[in-house]
Structures are given as C-alpha cells and as structure tokens.
Amino acid sequence: xxxxxxxxxxxxxxxxxxxxxxxxxxxxxxxxxxxxxxxxxxxxxxxxxxxxxxxxxxxxxxxxxxxxxxxxxxxxxxxxxxxxxxxxxxxxxxxxxxxxxxxxxxxxxxxxxxxxxxxxxxxxxxxxxxxxxxxxxxxxxxxxxxxxxxxxxxxxxxxxxxxxxx
Length: 166
Ligand code: MG
Known about the structure:
Radius of gyration: 16 Å
Distance between the termini: 29 Å
CATH superfamily: 2-C-methyl-D-erythritol 2,4-cyclodiphosphate synthase
CATH class: Alpha Beta
Number of strands: 7
Structural class: alpha+beta
Number of helices: 5
CATH architecture: 2-Layer Sandwich
Largest sheet: 5 strands, mixed
Strand order of the largest sheet: 4-1-7-5-6
Bound molecules: magnesium ion
C-alpha cells in the first residue's frame, strides 16, 4: 500500500510512585507511573503526534490543551479517536505506525503483543500495520535511571480517494 505522507511523534513523561502505568492503552503492573494531565500514555501521545504531523494537523498540545479541565485524567484512547477523526477529515487513512518505547523498567517483552493489538484496534488497522519495539537506555539519563519513560513513533498515511462532486 502506497504511503503519501510520513509523520513523527515523540513523548516523554516523568515517572512517580502511585501512578498507573498505561502504555498503548494497556495497563501494566509497575511500581511507578507517568505524571501527566491525562493518563500519560506516552505511546498513544506519540502516535497522535505522528499521525497528526503526517496529516499536517496541529500537535497534541494544541488539539487537547492541558489547561482544559476536560482532559484531566483523560483516557488517551479517547484523544486518539478524536485525532484519528481529524486525520480522516483531512483526507488521510493510516497505513502503518512504527512504535519504539524507551523504558528501563519494567520489561516490556511480555506486553508487546497486547500493546500492538490495542494500538491496531484503536487505529482501525490490522496488527501487521503496527510495530512495537522496546529499548532500554542502558542505565544512562533520566529514562535509564527509571525516572522517565518515552516513546518515538513514525506513521505512514495514504491519501483517501476524493469523490468528484457532480
Ligand atoms: Mg504526553
């Protein structure tokens, strides 16, 4: 399937005890979770910026301002659904997303399949259109010390056929 546009999205959240860790809309057992206005799901936030960026739309902060109480504790799945509607309205469909999660802990291998299936479901694409990779930062920097978690996402979009007006 041809790709007409490419976008990149990145996100990083500080981790603190007593917060739930949610990655790609999947709850993961850990002693810390992201500090954030919404649920702090770095995977979905980076997916939103990647698909919005590819479609030439505003970034996640502009679409869903953290000064707006409507987004306090927001389920990022809902934010992704709204962003996806904007992408389709702009005349694009998602072809694939390639996700890298940057985390020292917990080990993400056991969760990759569930995250892949959930991101695919939210985007309305086949599992094969989604890749989930996980990397540690080798004990270096804030991510390496387990104080933060991050994600980098590249998305490919195709232009939807435009029906000619008669
Ligand atoms: Mg974020």
